[in-house]
């Protein structure tokens, strides 16, 4: 693997070219969150107080799901401190923004801000990294899954995006809750329990039929939108011994209007370089990175990134720079290590080699 540098190494060299004031909070971002909140309230009231054919609720559910996701993107921004700095107000607004996804602000900062950002793509320390072949061999359920044909695994892998954020968030809660000091743990519990209590309470208020359209379908849609980004953020990149954002992160490109409604969440390499900068300024960061390290910067259209995920396995080889299919032992490159997203090919076909020998 080429020489790696820490995110601080890059940040130091890029920051001096940034305009004055780019590291200040941008409270105006909250207007987008207010718009999403009003849309959600309007959608809930429309479904709750109407008696329409259920098919007519589907478009509302889609809008609600998109709004849940948009609120989550803003919540991510708020809890990085790039919207407001006051800790209490930051946590209150972050909790509201993450309420549809039922993720508490204290858990998110512990899981995402501290562990994921500081140890990105570290095999042992990043809670979001995918496993190596050695770890898979110790997990019986994954051993069974990886006996399935590649196409079947890819299909179910993409289908799982519909609930993966919610499931992973709950897993992170149980993983990290005991890491908090005893006196803080009740608050962490409450921040997780209260959103779920509200959604379960809604079920009893409106009934199962309307609850499906008000919460369940929107949650599935929100998971798919959020995981569409998260699954492309790092899963085509190698595991790395040094937290190098240009090696371990991918920026995807989407239409400009999508960047607007998703608060520039597509600029992921830039985010890992400057998590304390408002994403409003990430186009400036991207321009400078591409000017200084064009050969190391990874970006591609969202559709191409998702297609590459479909065509490659999600297990890392022992070397951690390649992806491996546990069933056949076939090796695929990762970004910066032989993977060409426009033409996915097996790097080493061990199954074919063994057959010939």
TrEMBL record:
One Pfam family this sequence matches: FA_desaturase
The residue ranges of the Fatty acid desaturase domain are: 55-300
Question: How is this protein annotated for GO cellular component?
Answer: membrane
| Transmembrane segment boundaries | 30-49, 55-76, 150-176
Question: Which processes are annotated in GO (biological process)?
Answer: lipid biosynthetic process
Q: Which GO terms describe its molecular function?
A: oxidoreductase activity, acting on paired donors, with oxidation of a pair of donors resulting in the reduction of molecular oxygen to two molecules of water
| Keyword list, A-Z | Membrane, Transmembrane, Transmembrane helix
Matching entries from InterPro entries are given as: FA_desaturase_dom, Fatty_acid_desaturase
Q: Which CDD domains match?
A: Delta6-FADS-like (cd03506)
Q: What is this protein called?
A: Acyl-CoA desaturase
Classification of source organism: Bacteria, Bacillati, Bacillota, Bacilli, Bacillales
């Amino acid at each position: 693997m080429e020489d790696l540098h820490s995110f601080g190494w890059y940040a130091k060299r890029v920051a001096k070219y940034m305009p004055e004031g780019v590291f200040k909070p941008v409270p105006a971002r909250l207007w987008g969150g207010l718009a999403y909140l009003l849309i959600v309230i309007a959608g809930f009231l429309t479904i709750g107080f109407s008696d329409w054919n259920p098919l007519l609720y589907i478009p509302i559910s889609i809008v609600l799901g998109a709004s849940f996701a948009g609120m989550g993107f803003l919540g991510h921004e708020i809890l990085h401190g790039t919207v407001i700095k006051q800790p209490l107000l930051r946590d209150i607004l972050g909790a509201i923004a993450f309420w549809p996804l039922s993720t508490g602000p204290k858990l998110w900062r512990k899981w995402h801000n501290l562990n994921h950002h500081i140890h990105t793509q570290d095999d042992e320390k990043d809670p979001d990294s995918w496993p190596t072949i050695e770890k898979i061999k110790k997990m019986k359920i994954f051993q069974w899954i990886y006996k399935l044909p590649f196409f079947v695994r890819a299909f179910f892998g993409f289908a799982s995006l519909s609930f993966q954020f919610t499931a992973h968030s709950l897993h992170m809660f149980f993983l990290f809750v005991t890491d908090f000091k005893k006196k803080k743990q009740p608050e962490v519990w409450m921040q997780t329990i209260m959103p779920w209590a509200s959604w379960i309470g809604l079920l009893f208020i409106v009934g199962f039929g309307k609850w499906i359209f008000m919460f369940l379908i929107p949650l599935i849609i929100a998971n798919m939108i959020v995981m569409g980004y998260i699954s492309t953020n790092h899963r085509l990149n190698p595991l790395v011994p040094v937290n190098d954002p240009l090696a371990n992160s991918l920026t995807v490109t989407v239409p400009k209007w999508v960047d607007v409604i998703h608060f520039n969440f597509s600029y992921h390499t830039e985010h890992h370089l400057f998590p304390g900068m408002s994403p409003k300024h990430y186009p400036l960061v991207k321009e400078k990175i591409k000017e200084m390290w064009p050969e190391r910067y990874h970006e591609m259209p969202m559709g191409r990134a998702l297609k590459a995920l479909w065509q490659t396995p999600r297990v890392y080889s022992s070397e951690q720079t390649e992806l491996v299919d546990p069933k056949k032992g076939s090796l695929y490159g990762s970004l910066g290590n032989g993977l060409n997203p426009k033409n996915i090919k097996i790097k080493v076909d061990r199954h074919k080699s063994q057959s010939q020998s």
